[in-house]
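Reviewers asked in the last cycle whether our approach scales beyond single polypeptides. To address this, we selected a multi-component target totalling 507 residues and predicted its structure end to end. The input consisted of the following lines:
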Amino acid sequence: MKSITKQKSPEEIQQALQGMERVFIIGCGTCTTMTKTGGIDQVVEMKEYLQGLGKRVTGWTVIPTACDDMTEVAMKENKQAIGSADCILSMSCALGVHRMNLYIGKPVIPAQDTLFIAVEESPGYFREACEQCGQCLLGETAGICPITACHKGLVNGPCGGTNNGKCEVDKERDCAWTLIYERLKEQGRLDLMKKYQPPRNHHIALKPRVLRI
Amino acid sequence: MVSRFRDALNSGKFVITSEIAPPKGTNLEKMLHHIDLLKDRVDGMNVTDHQSSVMRFPSLGGCLAIKEAGGEPIMQMTCRDRNRMALEADLLLAYTRGIRNVLCLTGDAVPVGDHKEAKGVFDLDSLQLLNTIRELTSGKDLGGSDLDGAVEFCAGAIVTPEAQPIEPQLIKFEKKVEGGAEFFQTQAIYDLENFSRFMEYARQFPVKILAGIVLLSSARMAKYMTENVPGIFVPQELIDELSGVPKEEVLAKGIEIAGRTIAALKKDSICDGVHIMAIGREEVVPDIIAAAGL
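The resulting structure, written as structure tokens, was:
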């Protein structure tokens, strides 16, 4: 499972850093390294870019996994360089930004937009697989998630926009319900598709969702 | 009398419905003209609901205009823009204003339209919307609360007889029948042999089927639809027929093709009626009806 990110445009980053001359950069050794958006190479590139803008980079680090408690240790190790910066520029996903915010009062500015949670299906190909809806249907849909894989998140079968197994929003994309149909048929379980699925409960876990164990 | 349209469906006559496209803006002149032109010639007028995800004057507003003109509206309702509360509330309003027919649709995807950054709602789907109507008819809402005054609608849905693969669509069709759909308006059909095969299957269900007739206004449009519109297949002979006439006669040819398709459907009692979609040329619908000999 990977958190998929896209680096913000240079203009957006420049805008977000307006008035902040001294910057400390934090990358992540897990997801943003895998997607090549916030690993060592991108952090070094960012450092050079900011220096080109006339900013002072007080230091940088790449935390092995920016969303867990190693972040606190890494930030302590870099206390001095972080202390002399006006802000942290985070090149992790938003989960890392949240982590960093727990340990520092200074602004933590995201250099990334966090897009979705994905599985790496083949090297370099990340596919959104779960929206964490809280009512898993995979057992009834042959392991293909209609909430995630259908553009409209339909639970009662395909819409009229499907054509030759493709989706109306993009001819290159598979229609989730054609895939579900084919696989259920193969499994001899088409009856599952004939079952009426009532409207979904959007408050299974009340937003914002929390869990304490 | 619940619905004049339902009475027409149950009368055994060959039913004709047509489509009214609301304007993008507040100038209702053209829409009102089309309503006036068609209200006494068809059994019901569908008003589209932000068709192709392009924002327009609302379906409910168009339906009220039809009521005021003395016509019979069929309110198209998609699940793209409203959550279940808003859909239920609009059904209550529609009922109190005399609207008695609803066509339940899932709705096109947002990115195909002109508000590409909007949120697609899809809190319900077409089938769940049909079930919502059933619930409101029983005097309850989807929250389980009692209504002070229920609704009664003639509810319908759509089906795409030319979809590939067809079986997933038929499974959904049967779920819609079970969900209370009394009538179906189909996606455009051109190949009567294919459509007849679909009708042989559909006849086993206690629902009325109105075949979708989309006016072909040029060979280019016919080709475009075949290549780009899901579930529409225009046979090559029809495309050739359209390209074989001079430019100024193409529209007349399109009207002739639509008319003779309708006439053939009626002659052999293939289905219960037709739903004519003239796509922006609603003023020629009377010509299509005349060309069909109706």
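The beta strands of chain B are 15-20, 44-47, 73-78, 101-105, 154-159, 183-188, 208-214, 273-277. We regard this as preliminary and will revisit it once experimental data from Aim 1 are available.
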